[in-house]
């Protein structure tokens, strides 16, 4: 657990934080009492929350390895998460050490940790962004100085799209991202779903209100609409543990209890 005597400047330790809650669920140490309290309340509602976090992380790893296998050598990792084992830059370093990785986030805690972790790391950089407006990343001058949008890009929107409250606006943002990327680019995404238990999704949303990072769980059809500008590769939109598992029957015993749908889309 984090030492509460130290934290990045201007960070509120009394307000729970989505990235630090996720860190706690993954067994990390960069979290505080307020985060742990919400995480334990979440586990009371969804006992599988730890499994869901691990399956989410594992999906991202498999998806990034798939993109590297498709020849992608530029990655933008966008979303509220603290550096953890198996993050995008680690996976990329293993399978495509010549690739460039850009870590983008709007959370000061996440940014501080990312900058400390990646200091001196070649072919990796950190920029600030607003995950509620994911399409703005392609026009950021700092991003454009590092990423060549004339070549394929792997864009990771991990737990980002459910923070955009309007489904139509989320779809438009993804469509703008599609248009800004070159052919052969891919988007990797995860999204909290209201299927199969909308009442649990509503309770989780209530628990996360104090984090100032309120999200909107959506039905499968709504998520499909949001990413419709991309061509989903097989197996399409599915629960995280069911997307190309490393071994048959691997992953969560009850995939639907991860409450997270995921996929990889290609820009043709």
From TrEMBL:
InterPro entries: SAM-dependent_MTases_sf, SAM_dep_MeTrfase_SAV2177_type. Transmembrane segments: none annotated. Keywords: Methyltransferase, Transferase. One of its GO terms (biological process) is methylation. Gene3D superfamilies: Vaccinia Virus protein VP39. One of its GO terms (molecular function) is methyltransferase activity. It holds the Pfam family Methyltransf_19. It comes from the Bacteria. This is S-adenosyl methyltransferase. It comes from Actinomadura madurae.
